[in-house]
Inverse folding.
């Protein structure tokens, strides 16, 4: 059997969401997945980016490491994991723009039945992590993804994260995700991969019967 294919499409400005994305990838690979890590791109001008110190430089650094997500990536994947920093309690525009770009393959029904999961980060405590993750469930339902939350299905969940997905609070970008938060993200990668395997197996049996 071929490996389950997991797309991790994320936006990160200062690195916290990127670190979680890589930990999810580690968990997925450990459970046998083939992974594509993709960073959504900015669409604002360089003048706007210059208003936030370090934004343009960090963007260029991350863009050199990750390709931009495409329709082809989403069609390729058995599972799609979206990650975003919180923007006023909701999804960052950069990632939302990518999700909105999937209308063509959505209309063709090519996303129906794929696994979907979410993760995110925020700068301040009570800064909107859970509301942001929940806000991503809405477009995922419209796309036809089968939403996979984390629940409390692993001991790591009793130390960090949320039942909706892996999270981190950076305290104004002074803290990186610690071992407990990374363990949640790695569990998320394993869980998504496991569900993708099960669903693909069910599809194969259904097609053969």
């Amino acid at each position: 059997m071929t490996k389950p294919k997991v797309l991790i499409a994320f936006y990160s400005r200062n690195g916290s969401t990127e670190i979680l994305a890589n930990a999810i990838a580690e968990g997925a690979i450990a459970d046998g997945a083939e992974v594509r890590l993709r960073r959504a791109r900015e669409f604002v001008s360089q003048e706007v980016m210059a208003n936030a110190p370090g934004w343009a430089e960090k963007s260029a650094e991350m863009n050199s490491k990750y390709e931009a997500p495409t329709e082809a990536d989403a069609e390729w994947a058995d599972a799609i994991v979206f990650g975003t920093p919180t923007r006023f309690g909701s999804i960052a525009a950069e990632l939302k723009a990518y999700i909105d770009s999937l209308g063509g393959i959505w209309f063709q029904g090519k996303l129906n039945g794929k696994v979907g999961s979410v993760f995110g980060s925020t700068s301040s405590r009570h800064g909107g992590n859970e509301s942001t993750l929940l806000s991503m469930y809405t477009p995922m339902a419209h796309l036809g993804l089968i939403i996979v939350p984390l629940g409390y299905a692993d001991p790591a969940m009793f130390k960090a994260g949320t039942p909706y997905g892996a999270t981190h609070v950076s305290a104004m970008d002074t803290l990186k995700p610690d071992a407990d938060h990374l363990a949640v993200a790695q569990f998320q990668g394993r869980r998504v991969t496991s569900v993708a395997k099960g669903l693909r197996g069910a599809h194969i049996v259904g097609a053969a019967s």
In short: The radius of gyration is 16 Å. The CA atoms of residues 70 and 144 lie 18 Å apart. Helices lie at 16-30, 46-49, 55-65, 71-76, 93-100, 103-107, 129-143, 179-208.
